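Weekly puzzle thread! Below is a chain. First person to post its structure in token form gets bragging rights.
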Amino acid sequence: MSPKSHIAIVPEQPTGDVSLLPRGYALPFVLVAALFFLWGIPNNLNDVLIRQFMKSFVMTRLEAGLIQSAFYMGYFLLAIPAALVMRRFGYKSGFVIGLFLFSLGAILFWPAANVGRYSFFLVALFIIASGLSFLETAANPFITQLGDPRTAARRLNLAQAFNPLGSIAGVLIGTIFIFSGVELNPHQVANLQARNAYSSYLHTETLRVVTPYLALSALTFTMMILIAVTRFPALAEAEYHDGEHGQLRSLLGRPHFLFAIAAQFAYVGAQVGTWSYFIPYIQAYTHEPEKAAGFFLTATLVLFGVGRFISAWLMRYVQPSRLMAIYAIVNTALAAIGILFPGWIGICALLLTSFFMSLMYPTIFAQGIRGLGENTKLGGSLIVMAIVGGAVLTPVMGFISVRSGALAPAYIVPALAYLLIAFYSIADMRRLDPGPTPQLSARSLAEEA
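Winning reply:
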């Protein structure tokens, strides 16, 4: 690594009145923040799809959990290619390619529903997630580099605060337009089968996913055009030009960076698993109808959004890692309550976890790429790849649920994940050398190099 990468070491600290954004960069910030909102919609439509496909394809929780596996494998497999494309062509290329794939995958829900094949839906979800991998690989480091590095975690938390608004929109869209409210008991199923009408009912339920995804495809395509014709400032394409490119070997020699990848894997697995099985958890222990359970999921996502905004404000006064450590410990306890007290007490506990998980993804990301210099894009893509935790831990929860015959024990997986995040946060607090984080803007750093 070039000596010019070691410009200054800025210990993690409350950011006080340090400027969040340089003058003139509000427009790119707003446009990218809109992308955080946009990709929140399909992320949490998946939670509705799991319940809907359990009904329309008559499958187990484990089989339905493959929705998240297909989705988050797209993140995992496309993150490195996304980083390589952006290294060559810049952040804007990542935004445009990501939005194109997002739109393509969403429109493929139409033929998938008409054919009525679950595997076709998994392919469409994989394509959507591939697009989101480009968007997240571009958007997260873009936001962190859009101003003073001392405010990177706070700035990213603020941008990410728009993501749960998209998540809330996604769950509401799914609850209102995908859930029919028709839940057949065994006697009604037998009657339909006797009249050879059950297959028609299942196909009708499958077709309910088409309209929301066609609308989402149109919205995404419109956003792609808008990004394509918008002129981004030089900062959007700035690199750490110090005479060498980012190297994987350098990243693998940073234990704290590897710990950040593990923490992000655990966090995404905990978040996706908690939300994916929240509706089945409610129905299993309270017998509430699917639409009512969908509104409970909406409520927990509201808390998630509130948590993002409050956490971004608290980081003015509390170190990001210290705040995350507190939140992770609280969530470990709440998940344990969900395991030990299934029912309304457990539901309330799991509902509250969304508030405390809210800061984890952006904070782990921002802290993980601190001081990476020319390795920032590559390092960011590796942390995005850790999103595969959603593909791995969600089926693990489904497996535990099937083997134990109950859903509550499956929440041991999020509980352990939050415990690991607590250890990561404490380790980050104790780091004596936070890494070679430049105090200058990305443009100034490029000029200095």
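Puzzle host: Confirmed. Bonus trivia for everyone else. The chain is about 75% helix and 0% strand.
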